[in-house]
Every structure is written in structure tokens, then in C-alpha cells.
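S1.2 Input.
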Amino acid sequence: SASLSLSPLSVCHCVACVCVCVACSCLPLSGGGGVSVCAVQLQSESSIMESASQPVAFPLLSTWVDYTYRPCTIPYRFPSDPPHQPTSTELLWIELFRKSISVFRKHAEQDESVPDAPIKAAKFAQRYGEMLDDLQTNPESHGGPPDCILLCRLRELCLRECGFMDIFKKFKDEDNAKAISLFEDVVKLADNIQDTTERLEHLIKGVFAGNIFDLGAMQLAEVFASNGMSFLSSYEKLLSRPWVIDDLEQFKLRWPRKMWKKAVIFVDNSGADIILGILPFARELLRRGTQVILAANEMPSINDITCSELVDVVSKLKDANECLLGVDAHNLLVVSSGNELPVVDLSSVSPDLAYLASDADLVILEGMGRGIETNLYAQFKCDSLKVAMSNLCR
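S1.3 Output.
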């Protein structure tokens, strides 16, 4: 049977991965009222979409007296651990991130937008390797002690210092184009299911099937080979329920009885994940009258979709009447989360997201980086849903 490992075995974000288990969790808390805000409705209003304002805490985090928000799921060290000595958990995670260097170097070497890319890719590999060596010797170096957030941040820092802003850009664009061509067929499959709770389960499984392609850049040709049937194949091959954390039945019971006014979805990857997984589910929420806020990264990181890329994708999927295959999408909003990593710290989001999310009554965290490696135990003031695949082979 499948199991979810909250150990270094589930460390993000290497290209070669096999997704072997799923986790879905729902925290049934009460939500607040709704004020419709359309400030970022697929427009290029740079004052909203690309704000340089200081980050703020996500306003829907629980404020219970006995609750303290900690973004990272795994305890990398305890107060009793010597501060200048790395823990066994830290050492394991450092080594797993070290193993990803060759993959990132390879993609950096192929970045045609960067002059002398192979030389600069080698510099990146050397610099990041040295940082990991430093953390291995002294866990308090480079802003440590290390966790998945710091290890991801240092990797992005090294890439950008060497001139690499988006080494997966070419693959993301190809991935998005192929997924867009399949969007209508995937949506029609869901629409043909008459029972609303059965359709909900189908859509949630579609989110899992899309999320399998977390950093699938090395497998894109296979993923969409033969008219895209590999997405449907991935859907059919999902692990049978019950999943490791499986509150889907609880969510299905609430679905026909509660109408959420506004949902905030922290989205994950480009391509099949956002276009064939999240957007059909978001469309179903829109059909029910829920305003949907899609919160995407401000800056590129691996194959995660950025805010500007998502604006472009949605504009291509909407028709002249602002509909997504017959569903009014005027209430589908896109906003920058302020994030630039494949994981997310909800104590630091963009002010624009905080403003739009302040009256939401449903929060959805999608993807391993946002819903398992970070925020698995995050508590909110409103209903929340965490939907993620765990990639155990990295």
C-alpha cells in the first residue's frame, strides 16, 4: 500500500521523479463574508500584479491562542540539538538537494537566453555546492539552520546570480501549449458526469493527475505523446483510495450543502497541472457562483507557473464573452502570491493577495511544495483543502 513519507525522501524538486502517493486533507472551519474585488481580473495592472510592497502575513492563518504557524512540515531540528552541528535530518536534506545540482546545471547549460550558458551553469553548480558544503559544516551559515525553504532559496539565488532567471521557460511554454490543446476534451469528460459529487471526485482526481507532472521537464515528450493520452493514463493509474490522508468523503458531503463565496487557490506547476487539473476544478467552483482567486508565483522557480504566465494561459482559454467553455469566468482572478520558490511561507505573501483573500471562505493549497513539504499542518480561519502528490523518488 502507498504511504506518505514526511522525511527527506519526499524532498522537492528534482526533475526525475516518480509520483507514488497522494494526500488530500480538508479542515472544516467556518468562513467569513464576501466582498467582490476585481482588481486583478486578468489585466496587466502592474500596480497590482507586480507590486514591490513589503510582504505581509496571509490574513486567513489561524489566530488561535495556542497555535503558532510554522511553514515547514518536517522538524529539521529540536531546541536540544547543538546549534553548530547539523542534525541527521538536515544532512539528509542537504544531500538530496546536492543530487539535484546536475539536473539544474544541465538545464541551465541549455538556456539560450543566457550568453556563455555552459560556463555560467558550471559556476552555478560550484557556488551552490559550496553553500551546501558550508551548511554541512556549520548549519548556521547562509541564514541557516537549513530547511526546504532555505535550500530552495539558496538554489534560486545562485541561479540568478549567474544570470539564469528561468531555465525551464522553454519547457513550460511547450507544456502549456500542449495542455491548452487538451483542455476542452478534459472539461467535457467532467461535464458528462451528471452526479455533482461524482463529478467533484473526478475533478479532484484530475488535480492529482495533473500534479503528477511536478517538474516533468525531462518527460514532456512522453507526457503528451499520442494526442495527450498520457494525462488520461495518469488519471486511470492513480492509487486507489483510501489515500494516505483522505478527507475526500468529508469534502463531498460539504460540497452540495455549502456554497463558498470566495476561494483562494495556491497553484503549482505549469502545463497539465494548472490547465488540466486546477482550471477545470476552478471552473466548477465558478459554475456554483464562487469567486476564484488563483495565486501564482511572482518569479519563476522550476516549472511552477508564474502570475504573468497564468494571465496569458487563462486569456487563451476564455472566449470573447469571458467564459470558460460556457461558464462565466468574470469572477476568475489572478494575483501574484509574492512567492519565488516551489514552496511557500504563508507568513510572507504579497499585500495584493492578502487584500483579495481577506474575506475568502475557502483556501486550497495544491502541490507537494505548498501542501506537503510546507503547510500540511497549517491552520486557517476558514475551510481549507490540501491536494498534493508526494514524489518519493527524487
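S1.4 Remarks. Residues 352 and 382 are 19 Å apart (CA to CA).
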